[in-house]
Amino acid sequence: MDFNGFVRTENLSKVYSSGRIQVVALDRVNLSVAKGCFLGVTGTSGSGKSTLMNLLGGLDTPSTGEIHVQGKRISEFTSDELALYRRYQVGMIFQAFNIIPSYTALQNVALPLLFSDVTKLQRLRRAEEMLAKVGLHSRKDHRPGELSGGEQQRVAIARALIHRPNIILADEPTGNLDSQTSREIVEILSDLNRNQDLTVIMISHEEHLLAEFADEMIRLQDGHVVEQSRGD
Predict the structure, then answer these.
(1) Over residues 22-39, mean pLDDT
(2) Which of 104, 166, 189, 216 registers the highest number of CB atoms within 10 A of its CB?
């Protein structure tokens, strides 16, 4: 295993307990992801994919094992340190777009900067910049109801980029989209990976897309990494 990975896990495990019942979601997972890599993660439902993503994103804490990001052991961060990590180092994209219906695309993208030391003008300028990166600048004043599903996911991607993170974590970002739009979304993530040197970790059931665009792929099964391969 490469112990100099930009994102690295060591014997990472997560166990959920409900009374006497214990469910092992992840079991001693070891990963090493190089800076600027596009890693695809596949596996059946219940294999541990979303648990892995939540742990890497600081949304959950491990039962045992360690997570290192840029040389820092985030598995030992305090809640305040995790909040800063989620705000500035990782951008997260989900299957549900999670954008506010009454806000325009521009307002949705600018929203995470609201509690930062950034003026309103700076917030809007940066939001416009991010929308341009995902090819949606011309739709900046439209509300979600006026946008297609693919356009709404682009808004979500732009919002994930607003703090200029080093890592993008995408959990089934094409799950609610048709095949053509799914491809467009993965192409956007691939372009960001190549042109912005963003490290991208993406979960998807669409293995053919991951095989085409990802540098590396892993398959999870019952909380274990059972297969690792290079993309096409």
Answers:
(1) 95
(2) 189
